[in-house]
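Hello Y.,

Per our agreement to keep a running log of every chain we model this quarter, I'm adding this entry. I've kept the format consistent with earlier entries: sequence first, then predicted structure.
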Amino acid sequence: MDLDAVPALQHLSPEQLSDFRRSCAERSLEAGEELIRRGDEGGKLYFLLEGRVDVYMPKSGPDVVLAELTAPAIVGELELLTGQKRSANVRAAVPSRLLSLAHEDVDARIEAGDTAVLKAVYGIGRVIAARLVAMSAKFADLEAHADPAGSRELRDFRKKLFSDWSL
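Predicted structure for the entry above:
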């Protein structure tokens, strides 16, 4: 599998994908190997081409898995778009192959008006928007089935989450 399979990059032409691929570095992970640590400044966006990674919050007890991403997928996109430190840990669940793209390369290409990177960032935005839609539906479902106190707490959290758009 290669970049043309990554949903966030489906708007790129074969020539743009090839050019984009030349800017990436390949990385392989063994099962259990950490890719990203919460709080770090990673500086890279990853394209998961083979395998599966777990996105999780480290805890003193069992880790809380937020998502299981199976290839093809993007990883580390929030730091690219927000400039904030990594928000969760990511580790390989199985042997995995990824491509990485440095944030400086993305920024330089945007400044140069590179259409391929602009399309890629657009695609990443669409992936994040789809996740937000799914999260909204899940919140509504949880509110509908929670006890009154829990429902009120979920509603208040949802309102805060979806109304505070400032950084």
